[in-house]
Design a protein that fits this description.
The protein is globular. Helix 1 packs parallel to helix 4. It is an all-alpha fold. It has one domain: 434 Repressor (Amino-terminal Domain) (Orthogonal Bundle). Helices cover about 55% and strands about 0% of the residues. The N and C termini lie far apart (about 25 Å). The protein contains four helices and no strands.
Length: about 70
């Protein structure tokens, strides 16, 4: 049985969800800091929606994380 392969976006989203849950910031406060609507944060954290990379970057910055781009071999 093969394990699930994560693409970069899925991995980033999973890590961001965990960071938001583990954060001491409320969804309301994170929304104020990032400008991302609280409703978007709630549906994202619950796994009901994805986010854009621009939104991911805003969330990462507010949570003290860094997004890194990696290139895969051709």
């Amino acid at each position: 049985m093969k394990g699930k392969k994560w693409n970069d976006k899925e991995d980033i989203e999973l890590q961001l969800r965990r960071a938001i849950i583990d954060s001491e910031l409320t969804r309301y406060r994170l929304s104020q800091i990032t400008g991302v609507p609280e409703s978007v944060l709630c549906t994202f954290v619950s796994g009901k929606r994805s986010i854009t990379m621009a939104t991911a970057a805003k969330l990462a910055k507010a949570l003290g994380l860094e997004l890194k781009s990696t290139r895969k071999g051709r």
